[in-house]
Amino acid sequence: MNRKRPLALFAAATLAGGCAASPDPQLTFVQMTDSQFGFYDYEAELNRYRQAVELINADGENAAPNFMIMCGDMVNVPNEKNNADFVKASEALDIPYYLVPGNHDYNAKREIIDLYHKSFGRDYYTFDRGRYRIIVTNTNLWKSPQAETAEFDRWFSEALQNAKDDGKLIIVAGHCPIFLKTADEPDDQYYNLPRAKRAEILKLFKDYSVVAYLGGHSHTRIDNTWEGIRFLHPENTCTNFDNRPFGYRLIFVQGRTVYDSFVPLKR
Ligand SMILES: [Fe+2]
After folding, report:
1. Would 187 be classed as within a structural domain?
2. How far is the CA of 218 from the centre of ligand 1 (A)?
3. Residue 83: strand, helix, or coil
């Protein structure tokens, strides 16, 4: 449990959310996505990520985030040097950080899968914070099924059941949006999950009362609610197609209620 209380910020987030809540979140963390060094300008994108790390460490919002989660596409082109640059910049964080594989970090090529594991560790896993279990998924295996998909699907179902058995509230993190605007929208070649897989995943989310899905990939802010589940894709530090400023989001969770607040880069 964080001891510092983000009173002013949480109050603002509560007002923005339009409902009352005690200003004492049970879990506070940073959601980032798509640092994607090399999308347009490698050095500029690396430097903006470093700025975000400095801001998180400075914690000017007095939010005391417990960890940072990066929802994929750490780099534009994965290789030893680029991945190492991301890890080195991230190791400057004063808080733990957790990584999600994006489609630019991970694909069906054996050498890229091996590089991901060598650079960043496991591509799907879980971790706990208090009453919450965060399930980190590899949505590449859902978007473009490959040899590892069946095992991953089994693991995901077991992870949900294990969380339920352990009495945890579940937050799922991934990269690709499950959907962009509506759960029954048509397939998009690039930006959502295929309808059959989407229906399967959403049923699991509903059956296991998932609190929120944290993602990236869209380079456009997404904030949807479906069946009481929040789907959040924040601004990034690389390129925002919707012209939102560069930055990251602070996420406050209280019970099953999720609030978020944008933190812009300062320069
Ligand atoms: Fe992506």
Report:
1. yes
2. 7
3. helix
Scanning 76-194, the segments in alpha helix (DSSP H) are 80-90, 110-120, 140-143, 149-165
Cα atoms in the Cβ-side hemisphere of radius 13 Å centred on 32: 33
- 93 C-alpha to ligand 1 centroid (Å): 23
pLDDT at 23: 57
Report yes or no on 1 lying in a domain: no
Sheet holding 132-136, edge to edge: 125-129, 132-136, 169-173, 212-214, 229-233, 222-226
Give average pLDDT by consecutive 10-residue segment, the chain, 267 residues.
44 41 78 98 98 97 96 98 98 98 97 98 98 98 95 98 98 98 97 97 98 98 98 98 98 96 92
CATH number for the domain that contains residue 115: 3.60.21.10
The CA 138 to ligand 1 mean position distance, Å, reads 12
Q: Check residue 82 and give its pLDDT.
A: 98
Within a domain: residue 2?
no
Please, what is the Cα angle at 210 between 206 and 212, to 5 degrees? 120
What is the torsional sign of CA 119, 103, 232, 228? negative
Cα of 5 vs centre of ligand 1, distance in Å, is 33
Q: Is the dihedral of CA 185, 188, 191, 194 positive or negative?
A: positive
103 CA to centre of ligand 1 in angstroms: 5
Residues facing 125 on adjacent strands: 136
157 SS3 class: helix
Three-state secondary-structure class, residue 93: coil
Full residue range of the structural domain in which residue 74 is found: 7-264
Domain count, the chain: 1
